[in-house]
Amino acid sequence: MIPWLAGDADFPPLELARSHPNGLLCAGGDLAPERILAAYRRGIFPWFSAGEPILWWSPDPRMVLFPSEFRISRSLKKTLRAGRHEVRLDSAFARVITACAQTARPGQPGTWITSEMQRAYVRLHELGWAHSVETWVPGENGDELVGGLYGLAIGQMFYGESMFSLRTDASKIAVAHLARFLGKHGFGMVDCQMRTAHLASLGAREIPRREFIERLSGLVKDAQPVRWPEQGAVTDWR
Questions:
Q1: What residue numbers bound the domain in which 89 lies?
Q2: What is the largest CA-CA distance in the chain?
């Protein structure tokens, strides 16, 4: 049995997280902003499917991306330089998280981004903690949202949650702008949670959970919610 969070119970020590499934720490609690922020500050995140209790995770090792290590392929750089898209920050957060939830993914019959999770992260966005990066292209009836990602920013730490793409490279464009934006503003690390081949192709790599927590503790100190400028995306890809 894993620990159950009842009332205001605190999270258990990360050393109690299971190795199978990797990182499962505890269950229960709620998705109030205070609870979610406390979890992220300790290297814990919620991840569960509809019909399940809230499950909290802290895997070991941890997949991370250091902004300076983001890898831009020649084809992606060519796409970025072509400039046939526009990238905006925080202009359509609710649409991005909904699109992430609705995008079909190989091997995943449903989504973990339940309506409950969507409401929780939209609230965090309203409070200035959660952010979106969006890829737009011109359309017949105005600009079309064709890709993007969302996550949380706490101090100098960004926690990536999910991304979607309706056009070739649309989500990679958003990640490229995110990495450049975070590097410019002194962010030290992006939490990617679990390893995927896609993330590894972009420069993300695994580090031990102990190292992750050590780095994290210094990055989230004195954190305050921050509004991101809608037009704060990168425009020069020379």
A1: 63-219
A2: 55
